[in-house]
Amino acid sequence: MEKTENCSAATTDEQEIHYRGIKAMPYVIGNETFEKLGTTGTSNNLLVYLTTIFNMKSISATNLVNVFNGTCNLATLIGAFLSDTYFGRYTTLGFASISSFLGMVLLTLTAAVSKLHPPACNKSSENGTCDGPTPWQMTFLLSGLGLMVMGAGGIRPCNLAFGADQFNPETKSGKRGITSFFNWYYFTYTFAMMVSLTIIVYVQSDVSWAWGLAIPAFMMFLSCLMFFIGTKMYVKVKPQGSPITSVIQVIIAAVRKRKLKQPDEPWISLFNHIPKASINSKLAYSDQFRFLNKAAILTPEDKINSDGSAMNPWKLCSLQKVEEIKCLIRVVPIWASGIIYSVAMVQQQTYVVFQAIQSDRYLGHTGFNIPAASFGIFTMIGVTIWIPIYDRLIVPWLQKYTKKEGGITLLQKMSIGMVLAIITMVISAIVEDRRRALALSNPIGIDSKKRSISSLSTMWLIPQLTLIGLSEAFTLIGLIEFYYKQFPENMRSIAGSFTFIGLALSSYLSSFLISVVHKISERSQTGDWLPEDLNKGKLDYFYYLVAGLEVMNLGYFIMCANWYKYKEGGSTGNGVEGDDDMVKLQSDGV
Fold first, then answer.
1. Under a CB-based contact definition with an 8 Å cutoff, are residues 391 and 180 in contact?
2. How many CA atoms lie less than 13 Å away from 317 in the CB half-sphere?
3. How many domains does the chain have?
4. Are strands 14-19 and 236-237 parallel, antiparallel or unpaired?
5. 531 close to 537: Cβ distance less than 8 angstroms
6. Which positions ≥6 away from 379 have C-beta within 8 Å?
7. Residue range 269-294: average pLDDT?
8. Which of 120, 212, 378, 440 falls 20 to 30 Å from 452 in CA-CA distance?
9. How far apart are CA 307 and CA 19, in angstroms?
10. Phi and psi dihedrals of 436, rounded to 5?
């Protein structure tokens, strides 16, 4: 679909954009669903694959998986920058999807072809030792993982923004469609995780690794197919050049003019040229970070091009550009609070497995022992059930009373999730105290590491797992939507990367917190809170500590929310390719 322009000076300089909205969703949602099934199906059991098929030591395999996951999240910043600056989201997604597919194919071959992985331990030698992978086998493996990193770096920051690009942000139905899309986006993620943790993991572990890795690769092929089939229906936002450069230009121009006096009426007197091709909304003036306004003060030394733009953007920036940078700066404190929130999520997902290991995991009187790692599925079941109810029933009901898009504001939505996270940690502490008490007074057995197994049923872990899932549905979905709507339009891929960078940082922060608590508590009178045997520790104290941190974070978040000013402005400008219900956008960006 090509951009249509009226080149006649006598006619109105407008652009017709056709937003297909819900009509494009089968291709967008289908692409994302199959992509998540492919990537999660490959990565969820990667640690087991490396230790059992590639005969890697647990420490080496753990480090490789951590580096792989961390690099995937950090690569989103590079992918977002390339998307917003050079290629656009459509091209970036297409290239990244093919890269992920090829990476999964290579990984599948390492399992299917015997010469591409070490021999099994019982065949490698008579003394029982296992041969590790050869250098070229590792090279083949790392090549597959490298292609998957490239794919993740392009897909993760762009697919959400690309899906939202298909809706008209200027109409009620378009705004409602964007909000609904964010909810269903997270729904597909939890659905993919449920399938991966059950069916695909079962095939990999109990049937065949070759088939278990081939299934995700085939899913990724279907993802590519769905994506390219819908090509003619998509709205494609053109890249507008480096947004990072704009940030640096505003800061340098403001520093250069730091000695100038602020004008009395900045919204009138400051330089404010808006390029005709800009895709960004025209923003209202904000008094926050007024120092940056000096970048838009027009002096006799500043020269203007014939089209009205500044000849030297390192000395003079438009007020519009200054306001866009203010939007970015305002988001950072909320982003920091989201990182702290995610710590509770990470801790819950980590230690609930250890709690399940030392609890009664039998399903009633059936004799079936539920795997400890499978309890995370209850979090996803809760989210999967809740999102359709919230999106189709609760949001419309709230809208009738609040008259607000989405029923409540995004910051209010996030705060509800943070409150639920605090409640979750308190419940987790209470359940752990009871679990440990029964393990010491009424154990039902001893595990392989000679640790007492509590008679408390693991069914008591379901409430906390369900609550943390509901908490994620409010806060994480709220954060994703918040980044998309509050970032300037030309930085929305970078906005998508903020979520994954935040998750990476929260993982690092969680590891740091555990290390600090472990070192400090082992020298205390109560003893180590987090030993190998939970019955000898104080995991409930640790949960209360995390709950306390979340309470402080909630206070910080409320303070930031009261200070925060939502992005305000008019309609978007040009720079969009599309083909939908005709929408006319004035070329001056108003």
1. yes
2. 25
3. 3
4. unpaired
5. yes
6. 349, 465, 466, 468, 469, 472
7. 84
8. 378
9. 30
10. -65, -40
- Cα→Cα distances 502→62, 243, 256, 509, 562, Å: 21, 20, 33, 10, 22
Residue with tokens 């652009």: 15
The pair of three-digit structure tokens given for residue 477, joined into one six-digit string: 């979905």
| Burial classification of residue 469, based on how many CB atoms lie within 10 Å of its CB (0-12 exposed, 13-18 middle, 19 or more buried) | buried
**pLDDT at residue 16, rounded to an integer:** 60
Q: Are residues 300 and 449 in the same domain?
A: no
Here the tokens at position 36 are: 């998540």
Arithmetic mean of pLDDT over the chain: 81
- What is the C-alpha separation between 80 and 153, in angstroms, rounded? 8
Residue 240, Cβ density class (10 Å: 0-12 exposed, 13-18 middle, ≥19 buried): buried
Do 161 and 254 lie in one domain? The reply is no
What angle is formed at CA 287 by the lines to CA 246 and CA 332, rounded to 5 degrees?
Answer: 55
pLDDT in tens, 515-537: 888 889 888 877 888 887 888 88
Identify whether residues 208 and 103 lie together within a single domain: yes
SS3 content of the chain, % helix, strand, coil (to 5): 65, 5, 30
Torsion angle of alpha carbons 70, 75, 77, 79, nearest 10°?
A: -160
CB-CB contact of 286 with 322 (8 Å): no
Asked whether residue 145 falls in the same domain as residue 161, the answer is: yes
Length of the chain: 590
Residue 146 has pLDDT above 60, yes or no: yes
Secondary structure (DSSP) of 481-548: HHHHHHS-GGGHHHHHHHHHHHHHHHHHHHHHHHHHHHHHHTTSTT--SS-SSGGGS-HHHHHHHHHH
pLDDT digits (tens, 9 = 90+) for 463-477: 998 898 899 889 988
**What single-letter DSSP state applies at residue 460?**
G
More confident residue, 423 or 46: 423
Residue with tokens 């070490």: 118
Q: Is residue 44 part of a domain?
A: yes
For the stretch 151-195, pLDDT in tens is: 988 888 888 788 888 887 777 777 777 777 777 777 777 777 777
In angstroms, the CA 496 to CA 93 distance is: 13
543 and 402 within one domain: yes
Instruction: Give me the domain span that covers residue 197.
Output: 21-122+129-230
Q: Do 397 and 311 share a structural domain?
A: no
Token duo for residue 344: 């509770």
CA distance linking residue 140 with residue 107, whole number of Å:
8
Count CB atoms within 10 A of the CB of residue 254.
22
User: Ramachandran region of residue 457, left (φ > 0), alpha (ψ -120 to 50) or beta?
Assistant: beta
If asked whether residues 224 and 258 sit together in one domain, one would say no
By three-state DSSP, how is residue 77 classified? helix
Work out the average pLDDT over 556-578. Answer: 68
Q: Where are the alpha helices (DSSP H) in 53-134?
A: 58-82, 89-112, 121-124
Q: Are 235 and 577 in contact (CB under 8 A)?
A: yes
Q: Is residue 2 part of a domain?
A: no
Task: Tell me the pairing of strands 576-577 and 452-453.
Answer: unpaired
Per-residue pLDDT reduced to its tens digit, 429-474: 999 999 999 988 888 888 766 788 888 888 899 899 889 889 988 9
Domain end (from 272, 295, 321)? 321
Tell me which H or E stretch contains 307: none
CATH of the domain at 508: 1.20.1250.20
Beta carbons within 10 angstroms of residue 364's beta carbon: 8
Same domain, 271 and 333: no
